[in-house]
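To assess whether the prediction recovers the assembly geometry, we first specified each molecular entity separately, as shown.
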Amino acid sequence: MARKTVLIDTSLCTGCKACSVACKEWNELSAEKTQLLTSYQTQNAFTTKTWTYMTFVEKYEDQKMNWFMRKAQCFHCADPACMKACSSNAITKTESGYVVIDQEKCIGCGYCVENCPFGVPKVDQVKKKSYKCTGCIDRVENNLLPACVNTCQPGALSFGERDAMLTQAKKRLAEVQKTHPKAQLYGEKEMGGTTYLYLLLDSPEVYDLPVNPTVPLSLTLWKDVIRPVGTVAVGGAAAAVVLGVFANLFRGNYSNSDNKEGGKD
Amino acid sequence: MALKMETRNQMPKRIVEDKVLRFSAGERLSHWVHAISFFVLLFTGLGVLSTSFQPAMAIFGGIQVAQLIHRIAAIFFVVVVGLMFFVGNPRYHWRWLKFVFSFKKSDWQHVCAFPKEFFGGHGNYPEQEKYNGGEKINSLITIFGTIFITLSGVVMWFASSFPPALVRWAYPVHDLSMFIMTAAAIGHIYLGLLHPDSRAAMSGMINGYVSTKFARAHHREWYERLKKEQSMNEQKNV
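The predicted structure of the complete assembly is given in tokenized form:
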């Protein structure tokens, strides 16, 4: 299946939160007790049972309030840090661009939690399993729209082939920039290009998104340098010991009586 | 304070007949608690190192149990050994630190001759004190490895209490310390158990004593110093 993309056009979003309800319904995630954090926002982090939520930012400029709304969920990166960090090969990326966790393999170590630049995966401390948005891959692979896209009334969410969605996004961006000059796409190149692509009305910072999200340097160093070099070092030490035993046998050092009591003077 | 320790803890006679006391009971306890907990930590940690080790975690009753054992062993690894620097007869532990942190030219010369010795040859190096250059390096690896693996381990254990940037760095630090300490431990075990010339040192970590022959051959500077100190004490007591 070719690379898919979900375009989140925040200029069309009304903040109705139907997407979060649809997500919970399809994925059978129970409701959680929430409280108002700002005038409209009720959640500011993912949980094992909340895979998508709405953020509301009120920004005042020239005595005018701008209201920025964003549906937050896993970005499904082309270059996913969580997958690289996973200790158990439980996270994989599909051809269609979805990053999915296999809970059968997951051991709940939390390495994905710490390394995701967007704070997406969360570990259930009782079940010892990590959870996040699946992108409704079960629906997508059966030719259904993702639950959130399917339910979106103002048409802020659309789904399709990546190329087509990028074209649509760019066309739409040109339109939106007439009224919002700072509008930009987010996810076209970030993290290798994310399956969930945003049209933002302002810079990512305004939305509390990292401007240049990257695979952490510590993660690259850990998995691509320390792991292979360390393995070779330990293997080298073991090989040196085997060689040492044979060298001593060959030299007849084991039968030398001087050695038995600690060497000659 | 150190002086008080010296006077309160009477120095036992170090050279007894054909044996020399090398390690006190406290030092031996520290060594073995550290060694055993190190291997428990290593084996229970393998499950998160590579998936190929995950089936083996069944030995511990599954990977979740292995993680629990890992944390319990970590407490022994750090707390028991740390305590030995303050309770009982800690003088020897501090002395060990003093020894290994004074790395001299003669130590360096030993390190240079060490590869030859390792493979059963005979290298030339000056007479050594209680710890030779190689032993000092092994000690330094143990000390710094323990410090770094402990600090990163605490951050990983209580990850939610630390900023993500710090937790992200704790993983490579923890792994790097493990690899270096494991490589050192493999060499250390070889020298203690399998190396024909140096394995005579093993008894020093079991009952505390090494043969005078070994002491003279491998640590002559140390042996001569003890002999001198002992004869001076005997003269005093007369």
